[in-house]
Amino acid sequence: MSLFSEFQSKLRYQHYLIAFSGGVDSTALLSLFAKSREIQPHLQLRAIHIHHGLSSNADQWLEHCQHICRQFNIPLITRKVQVNNNNGIEQGAREARYQAIFEERLPNEVVATAHHLQDQTETFFLALKRSSGVKGLSAMQIESELFGMRIFRPLLNDKKEDLETYLRAEKLAWIEDESNADNRYERNFLRNQVLPQLRERWAFFDQAVQTTAQLCYNQQQLLNELLADEFSQNYNENDCTFNVSHFAKYCVNKQNALLRMWLEELGEPLLGEQALAILLKEVIFAPKDANPQYVLRDKTIRRYQNKLFLVPKLSDISNFCAELRIGQILLLPDYLGDVQLFKTAENLTALWRVENHEFKSILPLTDEQITVRFGYSGTVKLHAQDLNRDIKKVWQNLGVPVWQRTRIPLIFYGERLKNAVGFFENFGE
């Protein structure tokens, strides 16, 4: 079967967003899609080119991609991105690239990338270096979910030299990224120095790696199936928490597998064995009265009352204080949504909207200034005849995790705490 015939047989969707760098692989991908559209007119195609700004030739590459897309009559989206190299340029460029694609992708579009057989081998070896386990060694699949998007890799079983042969036959030009020769980058080191020797010794080495990756994928799917019931019993879809109250009864392998399933469910990168061991020791099996946490790149895993939470990086909002007027929508800091105040003849209603949740409190009428603040360390009375209680105990009784207590909007009448929206009213003076 020819490259084109095989490609055409894989097209199961109608709308595609094609990642187009202008190199050999993505140019072949774009051309194959354009030819397929001639036979399947229902195909809706767009392309996207990411300008990373890392090369002095990046502007010329952009012009080349615009020219090719005009030639194929495929609309091209162009995005310039800033690369954060805190975790290395390769990782930073990848994250910036996929973030831009995520922002431009339409809901019904499948993202098509030009990963081929040799790319699969490189990905497998990089996973091997990271001690990624069966999941990581599964490398790439022709279809998968990544960054919340459906990713389609129709060239994954094809060799790069076959793509080059195809482009020459079609008389299509492509660009060469000079950074591909820089062996300081891990993928280039494998591509240029390590893998050529292995391929010279074993001609079918890439196919063998592909087979092994597929076997690892199959094993991971089986493992997920065997643990599916237990995972669903402990995973809370509403707040994305994971119950670890029974973890002491499990063997380490089972503990690690469930933790990986949880992190994968939340779209987080895989953790290696050493990182998982630290997570188990310092968070899951930390003393009950501790406030343990494990820091990922931009998020933190925390435990509270035998539940694991994945918490984004939190800003200090302790100094926030804003007046809340009737009918006003008050935007809160650090992605905490907004609060709105309504008035009736008998009372006030405070409505806090954050993400997909709403919290409501009924308040007495007042002539005092009403403000919204965060964080309070005094005492409260939950009803008129109640004793003064330390607010820490109140939060504990309500089951509110430590880090969330300073992120719940508090209503003040003058300088007196009156209400924690959706949680309690303070009857204290």
TrEMBL record:
InterPro entries assigned to the protein according to its UniProt record, in alphabetical order: Lysidine-tRNA-synth_C (IPR012796), Rossmann-like_a/b/a_fold (IPR014729), TilS/TtcA_N (IPR011063), tRNA_Ile_lys_synt (IPR012094), tRNA_Ile_lys_synt_N (IPR012795), tRNA_Ile_lys_synt_subst-bd (IPR015262)
One Pfam family this sequence matches: TilS_C
Keyword Ubl conjugation: no
Enzyme Commission number(s) of this protein: 6.3.4.19
Boundaries of every Lysidine-tRNA(Ile) synthetase C-terminal domain copy: 370-427
GO cellular component: cytoplasm
Residues given in the record as ATP binding sites: 21-26
Keywords attached to this entry: ATP-binding, Cytoplasm, Ligase, Nucleotide-binding, tRNA processing
Catalysed transformations (reactions): cytidine(34) in tRNA(Ile2) + L-lysine + ATP = lysidine(34) in tRNA(Ile2) + AMP + diphosphate + H(+)
Single GO MF annotation: tRNA(Ile)-lysidine synthase activity
Subcellular location: Cytoplasm
Entry keyword Acetylation: no
Gene3D superfamilies registered for this protein in UniProt: 1.20.59.20, HUPs
Alphabetized SUPFAM superfamilies for the sequence: Adenine nucleotide alpha hydrolases-like, MesJ substrate recognition domain-like, PheT/TilS domain
GO BP annotations listed: tRNA modification
Family: Belongs to the tRNA(Ile)-lysidine synthase family.
HAMAP family: tRNA_Ile_lys_synt
Role played: Ligates lysine onto the cytidine present at position 34 of the AUA codon-specific tRNA(Ile) that contains the anticodon CAU, in an ATP-dependent manner. Cytidine is converted to lysidine, thus changing the amino acid specificity of the tRNA from methionine to isoleucine.
Note on domains (UniProt): The N-terminal region contains the highly conserved SGGXDS motif, predicted to be a P-loop motif involved in ATP binding.
The protein, known as: tRNA(Ile)-lysidine synthase
Organism per entry: [Actinobacillus] rossii
Species classification: Bacteria, Pseudomonadati, Pseudomonadota, Gammaproteobacteria, Pasteurellales
